[in-house]
Amino acid sequence: MLAPPVTAGETRLKQARLLALLLPSALLGGALFSQYVGGLYPCEMCYWQRWPHGAAILLAIGGFISPARAKPLVLLAALAILISGAIGVFHAGVEAGWWEGITVCTTNGAASLEDILKVPLVRCDQVQWTFLGLSLAAWNAILSIGGAAAIFFLAAWKSDR
What we know:
CATH architecture: Up-down Bundle
Structural class: mainly alpha
Oligomer: single chain
Protein backbone atom coordinates (compact mmCIF):
# COMPACT_ATOMS: atom_id res chain seq x y z
CA MET A 1 0.00 0.00 0.00
CA LEU A 2 1.26 3.46 -0.86
CA ALA A 3 1.87 6.09 1.74
CA PRO A 4 -0.31 9.19 1.55
CA PRO A 5 1.30 12.06 -0.37
CA VAL A 6 3.27 14.57 1.63
CA THR A 7 1.69 18.02 1.56
CA ALA A 8 3.62 21.22 0.99
CA GLY A 9 2.80 22.25 4.57
CA GLU A 10 4.36 19.08 5.93
CA THR A 11 7.44 19.65 3.79
CA ARG A 12 7.80 23.22 5.04
CA LEU A 13 7.42 22.07 8.65
CA LYS A 14 10.19 19.52 8.10
CA GLN A 15 12.38 22.27 6.63
CA ALA A 16 11.58 24.54 9.59
CA ARG A 17 12.38 21.75 12.04
CA LEU A 18 15.73 21.08 10.36
CA LEU A 19 16.60 24.79 10.26
CA ALA A 20 15.58 25.13 13.94
CA LEU A 21 18.15 22.45 14.75
CA LEU A 22 20.97 23.37 12.38
CA LEU A 23 21.05 27.16 12.82
CA PRO A 24 21.49 27.30 16.61
CA SER A 25 23.83 24.29 16.46
CA ALA A 26 26.04 26.11 13.96
CA LEU A 27 25.96 29.40 15.89
CA LEU A 28 26.62 27.78 19.26
CA GLY A 29 29.26 25.52 17.72
CA GLY A 30 30.94 28.53 16.15
CA ALA A 31 30.94 30.37 19.46
CA LEU A 32 32.46 27.40 21.27
CA PHE A 33 35.01 26.89 18.48
CA SER A 34 36.07 30.55 18.61
CA GLN A 35 36.43 30.27 22.38
CA TYR A 36 38.26 26.95 22.73
CA VAL A 37 40.19 26.86 19.46
CA GLY A 38 40.40 30.53 18.49
CA GLY A 39 41.17 31.85 21.97
CA LEU A 40 38.39 34.45 22.00
CA TYR A 41 37.18 34.73 25.58
CA PRO A 42 33.45 35.50 25.78
CA CYS A 43 32.03 38.31 27.85
CA GLU A 44 28.89 37.93 29.95
CA MET A 45 26.57 39.03 27.15
CA CYS A 46 28.19 36.47 24.84
CA TYR A 47 27.14 33.81 27.33
CA TRP A 48 23.62 35.27 27.44
CA GLN A 49 23.34 34.74 23.66
CA ARG A 50 24.34 31.08 23.98
CA TRP A 51 21.60 29.94 26.38
CA PRO A 52 18.67 30.51 24.00
CA HIS A 53 20.53 28.61 21.27
CA GLY A 54 20.93 25.66 23.64
CA ALA A 55 17.22 25.78 24.41
CA ALA A 56 16.39 25.97 20.69
CA ILE A 57 18.50 22.89 19.99
CA LEU A 58 16.65 20.92 22.68
CA LEU A 59 13.26 22.11 21.42
CA ALA A 60 14.13 21.19 17.82
CA ILE A 61 15.31 17.75 18.93
CA GLY A 62 11.97 17.40 20.71
CA GLY A 63 10.28 18.16 17.39
CA PHE A 64 12.18 15.27 15.78
CA ILE A 65 11.38 12.91 18.65
CA SER A 66 7.69 13.81 18.76
CA PRO A 67 6.48 14.67 15.24
CA ALA A 68 2.93 15.17 16.53
CA ARG A 69 4.22 18.11 18.61
CA ALA A 70 6.73 19.32 16.03
CA LYS A 71 4.98 22.56 15.08
CA PRO A 72 4.70 24.11 18.57
CA LEU A 73 8.20 22.91 19.47
CA VAL A 74 9.67 24.37 16.28
CA LEU A 75 7.87 27.67 16.89
CA LEU A 76 9.25 27.75 20.44
CA ALA A 77 12.73 27.00 19.06
CA ALA A 78 12.31 29.92 16.64
CA LEU A 79 11.32 32.14 19.56
CA ALA A 80 14.45 31.10 21.47
CA ILE A 81 16.61 31.84 18.41
CA LEU A 82 14.90 35.24 18.09
CA ILE A 83 15.66 35.98 21.75
CA SER A 84 19.34 35.22 21.14
CA GLY A 85 19.23 37.57 18.17
CA ALA A 86 17.64 40.32 20.29
CA ILE A 87 20.39 39.92 22.88
CA GLY A 88 22.88 40.10 19.99
CA VAL A 89 21.35 43.41 18.85
CA PHE A 90 21.69 44.77 22.39
CA HIS A 91 25.27 43.49 22.66
CA ALA A 92 26.25 44.91 19.25
CA GLY A 93 24.79 48.25 20.32
CA VAL A 94 26.89 48.18 23.49
CA GLU A 95 29.97 47.37 21.42
CA ALA A 96 29.21 50.24 19.03
CA GLY A 97 28.66 52.65 21.92
CA TRP A 98 25.02 53.29 21.02
CA TRP A 99 23.96 52.56 24.61
CA GLU A 100 25.47 51.34 27.85
CA GLY A 101 25.49 47.68 28.75
CA ILE A 102 24.12 46.15 31.89
CA THR A 103 27.49 44.67 32.86
CA VAL A 104 30.99 45.96 32.41
CA CYS A 105 33.05 42.79 32.36
CA THR A 106 33.29 39.19 33.38
CA THR A 107 35.77 36.47 34.11
CA ASN A 108 35.43 32.93 32.85
CA GLY A 109 35.50 29.82 35.01
CA ALA A 110 37.14 31.44 37.99
CA ALA A 111 36.55 29.78 41.36
CA SER A 112 39.00 31.70 43.55
CA LEU A 113 40.73 35.08 43.60
CA GLU A 114 43.84 33.43 42.18
CA ASP A 115 41.76 32.01 39.32
CA ILE A 116 40.18 35.41 38.70
CA LEU A 117 43.60 37.04 38.41
CA LYS A 118 44.75 34.42 35.88
CA VAL A 119 41.70 34.71 33.59
CA PRO A 120 41.52 37.59 31.10
CA LEU A 121 39.04 40.33 31.92
CA VAL A 122 36.60 40.58 29.01
CA ARG A 123 34.59 43.73 28.54
CA CYS A 124 31.20 43.59 26.83
CA ASP A 125 31.78 46.92 25.13
CA GLN A 126 34.98 45.90 23.33
CA VAL A 127 34.89 44.00 20.04
CA GLN A 128 37.42 41.16 20.02
CA TRP A 129 37.03 40.09 16.40
CA THR A 130 35.17 41.26 13.31
CA PHE A 131 34.23 39.81 9.95
CA LEU A 132 33.25 42.22 7.18
CA GLY A 133 33.22 44.99 9.77
CA LEU A 134 30.70 43.28 12.07
CA SER A 135 31.32 41.75 15.48
CA LEU A 136 30.32 38.23 16.43
CA ALA A 137 27.39 39.69 18.39
CA ALA A 138 26.20 41.53 15.28
CA TRP A 139 26.52 38.37 13.16
CA ASN A 140 24.59 36.41 15.77
CA ALA A 141 21.86 39.07 15.66
CA ILE A 142 21.61 39.01 11.86
CA LEU A 143 21.70 35.23 11.49
CA SER A 144 19.44 34.55 14.48
CA ILE A 145 16.76 37.09 13.59
CA GLY A 146 16.83 36.13 9.91
CA GLY A 147 16.80 32.43 10.74
CA ALA A 148 13.98 32.81 13.26
CA ALA A 149 11.93 34.69 10.66
CA ALA A 150 12.52 31.90 8.13
CA ILE A 151 11.53 29.24 10.68
CA PHE A 152 8.36 31.14 11.66
CA PHE A 153 7.48 31.55 7.97
CA LEU A 154 8.06 27.89 7.13
CA ALA A 155 6.33 26.51 10.22
CA ALA A 156 3.34 28.84 10.17
CA TRP A 157 2.61 28.67 6.42
CA LYS A 158 -0.92 27.35 6.02
CA SER A 159 -1.45 27.17 2.25
CA ASP A 160 -0.86 23.90 0.39
CA ARG A 161 -0.88 25.43 -3.09
